[in-house]
Request: fold
Amino acid sequence: MLAIVNSVVLVGLEGQSVRVEVDISNGLPVCDIVGLPDPSVREARERVRAAIKNSGFEFPLRRIIVNLAPGDIKKEGPIYDLPIALGILMAAEEIGNGPEGTIYAAGELSLEGSLRPVPGVLPMALALQEIQPGATFIVPAANANEAALATRLKVLAAESLGQVVAYWRGEGSLPEVKETEGQGPSPATPGVNLADIKGQAAAKRGLEIAAAGGHNILLIGSPGAGKTMLARALPAILPSLTYEEALTVTKIYSAAGLLSPGQGLVTERPFRTPHHTASSASIIGGGRVPKPGEVSLATHGVLFLDEIAEYRRDVLEALRQPLEDRVVTVSRVAAAITYPADFLLIGSMNPCPCGYYGDPVKECLCTPHQVAQYRKRLSGPLLDRIDLHLEVPRLTYGEVEDSTRPEDSLTVGERVRAARERQLVRFRGTGVTCNAAMSARQVHQYCRPAPQARSLLREAFNKLSLSMRAHDRLLKVARTIADLEGSEEITAAHLAEAIQYRSLDWGEAKEAMG
Reply:
């Protein structure tokens, strides 16, 4: 007898409907699974056999063929355990065809018959509500909260195969789970409070500009000057996630299997800090069937590369395309998958290998050649994509013992949110949410400096030998500074402040002239 149960396959962040077809016929007792299954899907035979027996049902000792259609898409993971078990019980006529309506099922079975959580349930659910609005989706109870974010599906939470069979027979019910997080903005992301950081007024101002416009930032200073602490203070001044942003972040974390059991919507901006020994595949994404990397896991949040000059050259160069396009396409033999990569990059580095080049107190032990080679670990094209180059100097003891409490993150965050609101109004209907994401055409439209500022820009362009990309990014930063002041016009003062944040360009210009 033939039985069909609906399920879903995940390719990247996109889901597609799958038919689990089970045919039982006379012959030697064997269970074959076809339809491009990977090893974890093939192993479902033993899990399903034990789960059916330990749940009190008979496993048919006949020839069983399980087909996962369509057969041209690779099937991965244990998510097909539940639909395969239901298909076998239906084909063996131990249960009927189930309740009315379209029903989808996904979940991993333990040998005792309980359901375990599986990754990727949210993007599956969001895809299914587009394919079949109003359908029923049976998922493990630990995945129910994330699946419930798909509001046009009926999400049922199951603890075991026995519960699902009772529901299938009409002998019991499964609890329906509805979204509980609401659709308002998420709370602010906690982090280091700016008020706890002594001194560093210029660096704090740079962080405020970076947060207000979504600009990438590089912190350069001696060891112990406070670079890492400043970087960790950035999330606290970023605006809260919108519901749409939170949903995107949750999809990515669900596909990567990083959601905690029972977790629903991700409510905090991501803050990713990969170690400097990380490979390009872990940063960009990879695997035989590509999985999200750090640039995708940091979407709508912060990617912090501490000691950025210590990362491998190929890793840093791989960041160039995601920083520009805000998406990353990972191509492998099995598939080419595009993931979001809309993140704010913040890097920190020492000025030289020993860390004390230019330090007013401790003498640098590096030769000029060593300093130059160390700086060259960050290529010109990569630096072009970093809007703010901030020096973080050593604190004086007077700054350390100063009892005046600096501005806290809440006060700075209010200014950042006000600036972001101006940008949302300006870019309404364009899909752009911050100044850093403006296209070249939008830069020309919204970043027209005043006449005096234009002459200053011309002089900086020539003296610093700026590329067109750096020229546009300079204007974007000036636009953000103007937004923080509530000004519609980009003045010479706004542009001058933006220029001073290109300190590495100034250094290169001095070397060229000297």
Remarks:
- Residues 26 and 305 are 61 Å apart (CA to CA).
